[in-house]
From TrEMBL:
Residues 22-184 form the Glycosyltransferase subfamily 4-like N-terminal domain. This is D-inositol 3-phosphate glycosyltransferase. It comes from the Bacteria. The keyword Glycosyltransferase applies. One of its GO terms (molecular function) is glycosyltransferase activity. It comes from Streptomyces fradiae ATCC 10745 = DSM 40063. Keywords: Glycosyltransferase, Transferase. Residues 192-340 form the Glycosyl transferase family domain. SUPFAM superfamilies: UDP-Glycosyltransferase/glycogen phosphorylase. Pfam families: Glyco_trans_4_4, Glycos_transf_1.
Length: 385
């Protein structure tokens, strides 16, 4: 991408003070910051929730067009939209040199992607593992009406892992003709000093079933037998699991050792990560979690499951521990609380984030994708489906 094409519109489903939509918003903002540092002019387009009647016009210094979210259907994020955003989608995409859609099966990102196709604006999709094979009725309908069309018509579809690529091929029904692997990056952070005081173990993610916050709580008693003064922190917006988490805390008699602090802003999450001795994300089939990258970036060792997209990197670098299932969480935490192991894993975590997942390298790759997308469009956009 050259200076002649500086205006990039990043479309994502929802932005809120609590980070309810999770990683895709963080990825979009990290990329936007990286683009701004290179002299480009990214803009964020999303629904807004939790800001009152007048949403902000910028997010972390990135100009933003945010529309108050309206719920049309009781289907989680798939059921929210904004009539005003939908009405203006065509004009919004025509005001950009390139549209980068963080695609989900919803009533925000799909219409924006379709508008970009209709307008002939270069289109890059990034699915973050949110578009995978599904037998749900709504997913099948959306795939037939729109998802396959935008996957086929986009100038590039970014994927994180081979597993995600296979899922996208399955949704499309044939190999993606425009797939590009691009990992997530994380801004460089200073390594945290070794935390002092009793062990502090952190979970910082949405409280939803796939992320297994109850497994985090269930691991606490075994750790407490070795470290009775340890403290466990559960942070993140509730998506249905908070009652089960609280019930398990009570059943195990852990009210004095496990605290639920609710949703945190991005700066607060980094503060919690710096205070933590170990970060634990028990989730399964997690494509490429930003919370783990942020943990590594400050030098906090991470414990993840083998189905986590970052598992091999964490294992090979010695930046934490990888467990087969929830039964291994406590043992992994105990290993990382040993002083020598803690020092080695912390240094490895910080080094891994600064090398394999640096924002500079990711933005270099992204700009190359953008350049090819613009060139492809200039060479024959009228032929796109």
């Amino acid at each position: 991408m050259t200076a002649a094409f500086p205006r990039v519109l990043h479309a994502v489903t929802l932005h809120s003070p609590t980070g309810a939509f999770g990683g895709p918003v963080r990825v979009a903002l990290n990329l936007a910051h990286g683009l701004r540092e290179r002299g480009h002019h990214p803009r964020l387009l999303a629904l807004a929730d939790g800001f009152g009647p007048v949403p902000p016009t910028e997010v972390e210094g990135v100009p933003a067009r945010l529309y108050p979210a309206r719920r049309l259907l009781p289907l989680g994020f798939s059921g929210i939209t904004s009539p005003a955003l939908l009405a203006r989608a065509g004009r919004l995409v025509r005001g950009a040199d390139l549209v980068h859609v963080h695609l989900a099966r919803d009533l925000v990102t799909l219409p924006v992607a379709l508008a970009a196709l209709r307008a002939g604006v270069p289109l890059v999709l990034q699915t973050h593992g949110m578009v995978d094979p599904s037998d749900r009725f709504l997913a099948r309908v959306l795939d037939a009406l729109a998802v396959r069309r935008v996957l086929r018509g986009a100038d590039a579809v970014l994927h994180l892992t081979a597993h995600e690529r296979r899922g996208l091929d399955a949704v499309l029904g044939s190999p993606l003709p425009n797939a590009v692997r691009l990992v997530n990056g994380v801004p460089r952070q200073e390594a945290r000093p070794a935390p002092e005081g009793p062990p502090r173990i952190l979970y910082a993610a949405r409280l939803q079933a796939r992320k297994r916050p109850c497994d985090f709580v269930a691991a606490a008693p075994e750790v407490l037998r070795r470290h009775p003064d340890a403290r466990f922190v559960v942070a993140g917006p509730d998506e249905g699991e908070l009652p089960a988490v609280r019930a398990l805390i009570d059943r195990l008699g852990l009210r004095e050792r496990v605290v639920c602090v609710g949703a945190l802003g991005s700066a607060q999450v980094l503060d919690e990560l710096r205070r933590a001795h170990v970060y634990v994300l028990p989730s399964v089939d997690e494509p490429f979690p930003m919370s783990v990258l942020e943990s590594l970036s400050v030098g906090t060792p991470a414990v993840v499951t083998g189905s986590n997209g970052l598992a091999s990197a964490v294992r090979e670098a010695g930046a934490g521990r990888v467990v087969a299932d929830a039964s291994g969480l406590a043992g992994a935490v105990l290993e990382l609380l040993e002083p020598e192991a803690a020092v080695k894993a912390s240094a490895a975590a910080h080094a891994l984030a600064g090398s394999a997942f640096s924002m500079d390298a990711v933005v270099d790759g992204l700009l190359a994708v953008y350049g090819r997308a613009v060139a492809r469009g200039a060479g024959g956009r009228a032929q796109r489906p």
